[in-house]
Amino acid sequence: MTKTWVTLSLMAALAVGILAATPATGEAQTLTPGDHAMTMEFGGLTRQYIVHVPPAGSGDTALPVLMVFHGGGQNDAKMQAYALIDTTADAEGFVTVYVSGTESGHGNRIEFWNSGFCCGYPYDNNVDDVGFSAAIIESLKTQINMDADRVYATGISNGGMMTYRNICERADLYAAAVIVEGAMDLTTTCSPSRSLPLMIVHATNDQNIPYDGGVGPNSKSHIDNTSVDSTVDAWKTINNCTGDGTTTTQSGLSTDVTQVERWVWDSCDTGVEMALYKIDGGAHRWPLQASTSWGSFMGETDSGTTVSPNALIWNFLKDHSLADGVSKGKSAK
H or E element: which one contains 250? Predict the structure, then answer.
């Protein structure tokens, strides 16, 4: 698909007291259905991201937005080609924004995020990736018919770490989030401005960010990661979830996956739910393979129907809105 290029000048907008998108033409621009490769001057750096507008973007309905954060060593274009979320976005009518990190001096757009405890150049130089993400969301308000109450975040690996940081520091912007094979820094306090629905997907055989925590044998960052169970417990505290949750198990997803255990906590603050998909086996990767098992988790009764895991992710996110007015979350460390 052909991409259009638009350059945004955040500094120029701030100079006149507004935070708004400034296309290269200097005129307001509505992004049409398709892919748009964007640049923005932010924090002294030229930042990049891709906006994918679904066919529904040509209509009058305000569309939700999914902010997607790539893994370490990737970039916006690689994440778009890898995760294959746009098929679900086109079918369900939401905008995907593939945000790009900062290069670590290796060339070839090998990029990372400042998640607060990792990784590479952006961490070492305290790049403001939380502010950059917020600036993109603000600029989109002038470019698409956007439902600002339904902005969501997802990311994998270092991008999952970045997603955790975004929702800890700017929960006022994100209605819900999904973390894939990521880790959260529990050595600092996470005190979001509101409780927040959260879904975690993690494989027990992840060799980069181990499910049980610690330094992964394949890790390039050598970070001592927090375990998934400890992260779940922290967010149960933030979201005031009680009880042990309910569990459902499905098998038959792929040759290296024994089964998937789904844990759900819905006795939380009003409007908040949490889910953990514990993949027994698997690897450090985005869940890609369509399966009847994913459909079973969504209540699909036709045993012959295969469902994309991206559809499962969207099924969790789509009903949550900032307009739900959930209460302020607790702090967790």
Answer: strand 246-254
Using alpha carbons, select from 310, 304, 275 the residue that is nearest to residue 289: 310
Position with higher pLDDT, 205 vs 295: 205
Strands (DSSP E) contained in 54-92 are 63-69
Please say whether the beta carbons of 249 and 260 come within 8 A: yes
Q: What's 32's DSSP letter?
A: P
pLDDT tens digits for range 60-76: 899 999 999 999 999 99
What does the alpha-carbon distance between residue 100 and residue 307 come to, in Å, rounded to a whole number? 28
Global pTM reads 0.89
Cα radius of gyration rounded to whole Å, the chain: 19
Element (H, E) at 297: helix 292-297
What residue ranges define each of the domains in the chain, with the CATH number in brackets? 3-324 (3.40.50.1820)
Q: Cβ of 237: how many Cβ atoms within 10 Å?
A: 15
Residue with tokens 């998934």: 228
Six-digit token string for 102: 């900062």
One-letter identity of residue 8? L
Tokens 């985005």 -> residue: 286
For 34, the enclosing helix (H) or strand (E) is strand 34-42
Query: How far is it, in rounded angstroms, from Cα 236 to Cα 184?
Result: 14
